[in-house]
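Aim 2 progress. For SHOCT domain-containing protein, the working sequence is reproduced below.
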Amino acid sequence: MTRIFVGGLLAVSLAIVSGCGHGSNRSTTNVTTTTTGQELTDLKAALDAGAISPDEYEKKRKAILKRKE
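Predicted C-alpha cells for this construct:
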C-alpha cells in the first residue's frame, strides 16, 4: 500500500515539475558555429556523393550565401 502511494506521489510530483517553465515567456536562440566556407564545403561533398541533386545544391548554396550577406 505504501509503495502505491509513494509511486503515485512520485508520478504527480514529476508531472507538476515537468510543467514548470513552459509559460509564454519562452525564448529560443539559434547559434551557428559552422563557417560559411565549411557549410559550402559540406554542401559540395553532399553533391559529389550524390546525396543531393545539382538543383538542390544551387538552391542551398544561394541560400547560404544570401544568409551571410
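The mean pLDDT is 79. This observation will guide construct design in the next reporting period.
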